[in-house]
Each structure stands twice: as C-alpha cells, then as structure tokens.
Write a structure and sequence with these properties.
Elements: H1 5-32, H2 41-63, H3 72-92, H4 98-111, H5 117-146, H6 149-174, H7 178-217, H8 227-233, H9 235-244, E1 247-255, H10 258-265, H11 267-284, E2 290-293, E3 298-304, H12 308-323, E4 327-329, E5 332-334, E6 338-346, H13 351-367, E7 373-376, E8 382-383
Parallel strand pairs: 6-7
Antiparallel strand pairs: 1-3, 1-6, 2-3, 4-5, 7-8
Helix pairs in contact: 1-2, 1-7, 2-3, 3-4, 3-5, 4-5, 5-6, 6-7, 10-11, 11-12
C-alpha cells in the first residue's frame, strides 16, 4: 500500500475524475442532440469541462514541479463553483443572486494576486462554500417542486461542501496543522464533484422518464389527460361506484363546425380554439371530475358520484361559457359553439360504456340543431330548447 498511495494517488484520482467527466460528456453529447435538451445542459457542460481542466492544473502543480505565478487550481475552484451555481439556477429557472455572487466571484479571483497563500485559502473556502449554499438551496427547491431526487443528490453534494469547507478552514487557520485542512478541502471537493455528476445524470434521467410518462397520459396541446390517462385516473372512482352503487355521469363535448374553422383560418387558430375550450371546461369542472381530450375536437368529462340532472346543469354552463367567448381573428369575431351529450350509469360501469352513451347523446344534440345539450339515462331522450 505504501507503494500505491504516496507518489501515485494524484494520478489515480485524476484518472477517476477524467473517467467521470468523459462519461458525463458522452451523456451531455447525446442529450444535446435530442429534440428537447434539458434545461441547464450548457452550463453543466461548462462546469464539467472546467472542473476537468482544474484537476489537470492541480495534478501538474503537485506532481510536475510546474511553477505558476498564480494558483490556477484555486482560481478554477472558485470559478467552477460559481458556474455550478449558475447551472443549477438555469435548470430551476431562477436568476436570483447571479449578479451579486458574480461580483463576489470576481473579487475572490482577484484576491489571488494580492493575498498570501494562507489567507487566500480562507477566502477561497468561504467563497466556494457560499456558492455551494446557493446551489444547494436552488437544487433542493427544484427537487421539491419537480419531485426529482437527482436535484436532491446535488443538494446533498452542496451540503457536504458547506459542512466540509468550514472544517477545512478551521484546521488550516485555527490549528497548527494546515496540511490537514488542505487534505479535507481536497477530499470534500473530490467527493462533491462525483456526487454532482451522479445527481445531474439522475436528474436528467428522471426528467426524461417523467416526460415519457406525460406523453403517454397527457394531451400535449391542451395539457389535459388523454384516454389512457383518464382510465388510470378513474380506476378508484369506478371501483367505488360499482361497490357502493353510486351514479357516475359523463359529458361529451364536441366543438361545432371545427373543421370549417381549421379550413378557413388555419390550424393555428384551430389549436387556439381547442386550448380555449379546454380552459373553460377545466375551470368549470370540480376537482373530483376527470377531464380529457379524447379526439380531434372532442372532450370527455367524467363526474364521479354525480346524478344526471347535476351533470346536465354543468353541461349547460359549459355550453353557455363556450358560446360567450367568440374568437377574434383579424378583427373578425368567430362564433364558437359546442354540442354536449350527457349520460349517467348507476352502479357497475366501465369507461367505454359510459363514454359510448355520452357520445350517443352528443350526436343527438348535433342532429337536434347543434349548440345544445342532450342526455340519455336508458330512458327517453331529453333535448333542451335553450339553443341560442
């Protein structure tokens, strides 16, 4: 063991850091070529590359007897820590503190030209710890908001630095053993770098997994559920309705003459109409209701524990709200209306049967003149005469 560590540890550590950085850069290269690169990818790339350069400079300084007028590894450590803070902020969509901490970074780097090594070690430690505090808070906030454990891992690396650097400063300046302080700082930063690399990779992978999950269950245009997402969301409600004999209602919404809107004003206007109708339906529905876009211009609402009469009242409110918001295109008002079908099943039911009944009622509303509500409950059909 004595032949392994004393003279060769720096090269072994450099090899490990180089391997981690190369692996990260390979991942970054693949992600950068994707249709939707993750936020903060550019700055994290700069951080990993700059850190590698810092390790190279440190290895040369410690093992090749290279005399440098400026302590390049110290300056690189300060710069890298600030770059990491900016990368974490960019990924979280937070720009707070960049100017203030950027000024501190510049002053700390300039101190290298004027302060003795012992004092500079303290300045470096305090500055880097400050940057990692900001990084840790930013990543912890994003981890909580996005439910992403990868950002929590980066926050843990920041916590390691926040605790380890004051301890290193204490040994370096407060005791007669400055070498131990430098060893602690070196070890803490090496471990933190590896944990940041792992955390970034985990964060990106989890983000992509969440993105794929959303693609499978969400409509990308309206951000409503698709049919698969609706089925997943209704599993418990359907089981409860079957067990307790509760009524479950559904409202099928179909935008009238939607194809004419697309043909006359373009698909961009059609998309705007879809988003507008989706917003109205989401705003008027209850938190317990499940809303989905099931077709080109069709929307389905499922209302657990709701009788037919209550569902019809909601359908009328939705119809009136849609009709009250004409679309304005090139100073021309485009009337937007919808036909709605309401169905209700009591007790045991499945989503296919319920949506089929609501769809049948919706076509009855279309045949009855459009811009109206029709309902079915395994009884004679009732058509409203409130068309406007």
């Amino acid at each position: 063991m004595e032949q392994v560590f004393p003279g060769n540890w720096a090269f072994m550590l450099f090899g490990l850091i180089f391997s981690i950085t190369c692996a990260q850069m390979l991942v970054v290269y693949v992600l950068a070529d994707s249709s939707k690169p993750p936020a903060g990818l550019g700055l994290y790339t700069v951080y990993f590359m700059a850190s590698l350069l810092g390790w190279i400079a440190l290895t040369l300084q410690q093992n090749a007897d290279v005399q440098m007028a400026v302590n390049v590894p110290s300056v690189m450590l300060i710069l890298n820590s600030y770059i990491l803070f900016m990368a974490a902020g960019q990924r979280a969509g937070i720009a707070l503190g960049r100017v203030v901490l950027g000024t501190i970074c510049l002053v700390a780097c300039l101190c290298e030209f004027f302060l003795p090594p012992g004092t500079m070690f303290v300045v470096q430690g305090v500055t880097v710890a400050l940057f990692f505090v900001g990084t840790g808070l930013t990543c912890a906030w994003r981890s909580w908001r996005q439910r992403n454990i990868g950002d929590a891992i980066i926050a843990y690396a920041a916590l390691m630095m926040t605790i380890g650097l004051p301890l290193a400063i204490y040994y370096h300046a407060g005791t007669a053993n400055p070498a131990r302080g430098e060893a602690i700082a070196f070890g803490v930063y090496s471990a933190a770098y590896a944990v940041v690399a792992i955390g970034f990779l985990a964060s990106v992978l989890i983000e992509y997994q969440q993105h794929l999950s959303n693609l499978a269950t969400l409509d990308p245009l309206t951000r409503l559920l698709n049919r698969r997402g609706m089925e997943d969301a209704l599993q418990i409600s359907i089981a409860q309705a079957s067990r307790r004999g509760l009524p479950t209602s559904a409202i099928m919404v179909d935008i009238d003459h939607f194809k004419q809107v697309n043909d006359s004003f373009g698909h961009e206007t059609g998309d705007h109409v879809l988003r507008q109708v989706a917003e109205i339906i989401s705003r008027l529905s209850r938190s317990s209701d499940v809303v989905a876009r099931t077709g080109g211009e069709e929307f389905l609402l499922v209302l657990p524990d709701t009788a037919l009469d209550s569902a019809r009242l909601l359908a009328e409110r939705i119809r009136e709200a849609i009709g009250a918001r004409p679309l304005l295109v090139d100073s021309q008002r485009i009337a937007i209306t919808a036909s709605l079908g309401v169905a209700c099943i009591v007790g045991h039911m499945n989503l296919a049967d319920l949506s089929q009944e609501a769809d049948r009622a919706m076509y009855l509303a279309k045949r009855g003149g459009r811009n109206r509500v029709a309902s079915v409950e395994h009884k004679p059909v009732h058509l409203s005469n409130t068309a406007r």
